C-alpha cells in the first residue's frame, strides 16, 4: 500500500487534528518502491527515463537509485544510444539478487521450481511420491532436498528468500495448516508452514494446489487478467480455484472450490468426510475413470491385452481416434465423464456466474473431454461460461506458487 503523504496528529488542546508531513524516511522508502516497480517493468532504462515516467525530480531519482544499488537491486550496464547529446548511462533491475521457489505436492509427484525476481524459471526438480514418501515429514525432507539441488544448479545458494507450496486438500492459508489431504498419508491438521520454515530455513506460504493453478493461469495463462473465472483441475483428484471480482475466493472455512465433494446425479447421498475423497472425485477423477473403463471392458469380455492397462488420459486419446479398437467404448466413458463434469460446471455457473472456466490437470486438459463437455453445456439456456483448456498445463500450479512468492517478498526487498 502506498505510504500516505500526510498523517494526522491530535493536539493536546483538543482542536481538530492538523495535517502533518510524512517523515522523510517514509517518503524515501515510498519513492524507492515506486522506482523499483518501474525498473522491474521497463529496464534497461536511464535515470532520465525514470524521471519522466515517475514524475519525481532528478535529485530524488538519483538518491533512490543509489539506495537501490546499495541494496543490490540495481546494476549499471553501460551507455545507451545517444539522441544527439551525451549517451545516457543505462540501469537494469538485478533479477538475480534473490530467488523464490514454488512446489506442488501431487498425489503421485512432488514438483518444484526456482525463479529469479523477474519470475523467470532458473531450475526445476521433481520426485515420485511412492510408498512411505507421502507423510508430512517425508514430503518436507524431499522439499529440502529439491530446494538444495535447485539452488546449487542455479548458483543461488543462500539467496532463496521464499517458497510457496501447494497442498492437495483443504488448506487454511492464514495459519499455514493443511486441514485435510485425503490423497496423501497422515495429512490432517498439518502445520505445514511452520514445518517448512523450520525445515528449510526460509519464509513459506501454504496454499491449496488448485488455487495455485488458478493464480498461475491468471498471472500468465489463458485467464490473464480475468476477474471472474474458475479453474477446474482433474487428475488424481478433482478441485476448483475460484476468482470473484479479481480476488481468489477461499470461503469462511477455506473449503471453497472443493468440488470433489459434490454429489453425482443418480448416486446415493453420502455424508462428506474430511478424511475421505468425495463422490464427484471418485467418479471423474483419474482412478474413477479407469475403474469405469475396466468395468466396460469386462462387460465386453476384454480382460487381457493392452486395453485394460490404459490410464485415464490414454482412454481419452483412444476416444479421439475413430479408427482405433474400442473407440466407441472409450467415447462412452468420455460422454459419461463430460455429462457429470457439465453438471458440476452448471452448479458453479449458477453460484458464481464466471465468464470463463479453465480445465486443467492430466485428465481435465484433454481436448476430447472439453469438446464433449461443451456439447452438454450448450443445452443450457444459462450458466454457459466459456470453456477453455489450460495454457500452462502441469506448470500452472508452479507458476502460481512463484507469483505468490514474489508478492510475498516484494515488501522486504529494500535493505
From TrEMBL:
Read off the InterPro entries from this record.
Answer: ArsR-like_HTH, ATPase_NBD, ROK, WH-like_DNA-bd_sf, WH_DNA-bd_sf
Supply the alphabetized keyword list: Kinase, Transferase
Key word Kinase present in the record?
yes
A single Gene Ontology biological process assigned to it is: regulation of DNA-templated transcription
Spans annotated as Disordered: 1-26
Q: Does the keyword Transferase apply?
A: yes
Q: Which Gene3D superfamilies match?
A: 3.30.420.40, Winged helix-like DNA-binding domain superfamily/Winged helix DNA-binding domain
One Pfam family assigned to this protein is HTH_24
Which GO-annotated molecular functions does the record name? kinase activity
Domain of life the protein comes from:
Bacteria
Q: Which family does it belong to?
A: Belongs to the ROK (NagC/XylR) family.
Question: What is the name of this protein?
Answer: Transcriptional regulator/sugar kinase
Q: Tell me the classification of the organism that encodes this protein.
A: Bacteria, Pseudomonadati, Acidobacteriota, Terriglobia, Terriglobales
